[in-house]
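Quick one: DedA family protein from Shewanella amazonensis, structure tokens please.
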Amino acid sequence: MEPLWLMFSGAFLAATLLPGGSEVLLLALVNSNPELWFSLFVVATLGNTLGALTSLGLGCLGRVAWEPEQLSRSQRRALALVEKYGVWSLLLSWAPVIGDILCVLAGWLRLPLFMSIILILIGKGARYGLLLLMMQAF
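--- reply ---
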């Protein structure tokens, strides 16, 4: 149970605005507990998705205090991308650097919650799944 809790908390924190990467943690835990690979995959995906939804919720709360004029140039560019592609941009919520801001912007723009959850879950799960497949190949 300890590896699963460690994986969940690491994945959750990595998906918030806090720095950190859960990929190395997943690979290390699967390497030391190969019998738990599927449970670790599920827990990592759920933890990372819930962390991203926390960022989305923070974006909802910040809507009143965060005006477009206050955004940096890169944040305005990210905002333009989310406005252009809408909820589909959340398939990239797994990406380093931009993933966190995409989730915050999704909340700020009040993108549809159900579709946001589904697309974030798909993106996060695909990333961890590919990582585990690559681990098996090497």
